[in-house]
Amino acid sequence: MAAAGKRRPVAWKRPRRARVHALRDKLRELYGEPVGVPHRQPVDELVRTILSQSTSDRNRDVAFGRLKERFPSWEAVRDAPVEEVEEAIRPGGLYKQKAPRIQQVLRELGEEIDLRWLETAPREEALASLTALPGVGRKTAACVQIFTWGRPEIPVDVHVHRVGGRLGLFRPNAPFEEAHDEMLAITDPEDAYEFHINLITHGRRVCRPQPRCWECGLRRMCVWYRALPTDERPAPPQGRKAAK
Predict the structure, then answer these.
(1) What is the distance between the alpha carbons of residues 105 and 46, in angstroms, rounded to a whole number?
(2) pLDDT tens across 36-84, in order?
(3) Which of 70, 103, 134, 236 meets the CB 3.0–4.6 Å disulfide criterion with 214?
(4) Phi and psi dihedrals of 121, rounded to 5?
(5) Domains in the chain and their CATH numbers?
(6) How much is the pTM?
(7) Which secondary structure element, helix H or strand E, spans residue 178, and what is its range?
């Protein structure tokens, strides 16, 4: 029996595909089976993902909508005074940082801004081209791939990183780059969109930085929870019962 106050050490190993399927199925039972509809607008997705950093989906969408309403094209956004772009995206937060970054990215895309060639480019070439853009990392590049074209990627944001780490889908505290690689290695391509969306939903609703383990339908499958000494497991508020 583990001593009080000490987590039982668990040696990590890559989960078997059967476990990944079981987690997918339980998440599907909890949150449904989301289906991606590729919108085929890669520059839109690139800018939208930049706007999403450190803000809510609602604020991101408001900022993106204002940007599209204010400017007739991405070339117009690129060439506008930065103050005008800042004002358009102000509701998205960090507008002083995001406006020049968006313009810098658009300048790197050439005179005529077009990323449609990514649809048929080899995966590694597409990712390399996107991550070569200023301030564009692996998560943003993966978002462009999966949401624009439906190409199988699992963008690892803070929610996927937190939930995936607790479930043992990759090494504890793995760098984001490593977590991306592991998620791709264990996930069937046809499950990529659903798994990504449902992990995010679980991270927002239940598996928060201060987790609500008593509500969690994955509790019995959770490596992190099971490694905790019993007296340290998050407990429901007084008067509430834990989910079965």
Answers:
(1) 9
(2) 999 999 999 999 999 999 999 999 999 999 999 999 999 999 999 999 9
(3) 236
(4) -75, 145
(5) 17-35+154-232 (1.10.1670.10), 42-135 (1.10.340.30)
(6) 0.90
(7) helix 176-186
